[in-house]
Design brief:
This protein has eleven helices and two strands, in the order H-H-H-H-E-H-E-H-H-H-H-H-H. By secondary structure, the chain is mostly helical. It is a multi-pass membrane protein.
Length: 274
């Protein structure tokens, strides 16, 4: 009787641990962005946080969702991707609003979809659009302003276009195994490069001012846990290989925190007016 109870208890504990790990995978990924969100909200300064971090995660998780339709991995990993995409849009919304508030001189609107300009007006006249009629409008796809638009809707529109195109291609090639495997690799590799935009931003600024160190520490802990989870749960090879790369980039950012510590302290004093 004792061994039966022991077996049943072990099974229950195993289930609880599994559910706990799955729950941590689903919502644990958003935890690092809470201190960064609060810091931006408190200082009303979003310059230290790279929006390309959001772009990287949105692309990675959208590709991972598409990968699920070709190779059914665990549901918690699918839910994690959905939750992460929502979180990234919340971060973008905050950053766009803060940057708008901090504009001393109102700059030209930059949007993803339709942007009226002199060329559009000229072409509108050539096509017979006159008077009160609106001229033709064109996509504002200047590389200089890509992912640096001035309204939140542009970021949503961009990801909608990417998602629809990705879904259409995946639907057509869903039976092609090499393509499905490539989508999976591209998804986790893109996520693995998450730290790269922040590393570049820190290198440009020669400082980590405006970046939440707590966020990076939580990134590192989360990525170590995530990589271990992939190995233990025997997730596709792409997951744990790229997870290891992601941990490496996290460590590089932490080294930047130490390397630029004097510049960061000086930038912080300047911002406070000390």
């Amino acid at each position: 009787m004792d061994w039966i109870i022991s077996d049943e208890l072990g099974l229950t504990v195993g289930h609880l641990v599994g559910w706990g790990a799955a729950g941590a995978m689903i919502i644990g990924g958003i935890a690092p962005y809470i201190p960064q969100y609060r810091q931006i909200q408190k200082t009303q300064d979003a310059e230290g946080f790279s929006l390309y971090v959001c772009l990287t995660l949105l692309i990675a998780n959208t590709l991972r969702i598409l990968f699920w339709f070709g190779k059914r991995y665990e549901i918690p990993l699918l839910l994690q991707s959905i939750v992460m995409n929502v979180t990234m849009f919340i971060m973008i919304h905050l950053c766009v609003n803060v940057r708008k508030k901090n504009q001393i001189i109102r700059a030209r609107e930059r949007i993803f979809t339709a942007q009226p300009d002199e060329t559009a007006r000229w072409l509108g006249q050539q096509s017979g659009v006159t008077g009160g009629e609106k001229p033709r409008r064109f996509y504002d796809m200047d590389r200089k302003y890509f992912w640096a638009w001035t309204d939140f809707q542009s970021y949503v529109d961009c990801m909608l276009v990417f998602s629809v195109l990705g879904a259409a291609i995946t639907y057509l090639l869903i039976e092609v195994s090499p393509f499905v495997e490539f989508i999976g690799f591209l998804a986790v590799f893109t996520e693995a490069m998450l730290g790269a935009p922040q590393i570049f931003k820190n290198h440009q600024n020669k400082s980590t001012e405006g970046m939440s160190v707590s966020m990076v520490i939580m990134w590192t802990c989360g990525d170590i846990f995530k990589t271990a989870y992939y190995v233990i749960r025997e997730a596709p090879t792409q997951f744990w290989v790229c997870g290891s790369l992601q941990v490496t980039l996290d460590v590089v950012i932490l080294l930047q925190v130490w390397w630029y510590r004097h510049n960061t302290a000086a930038a912080r004093r300047l911002r406070r007016g000390d």
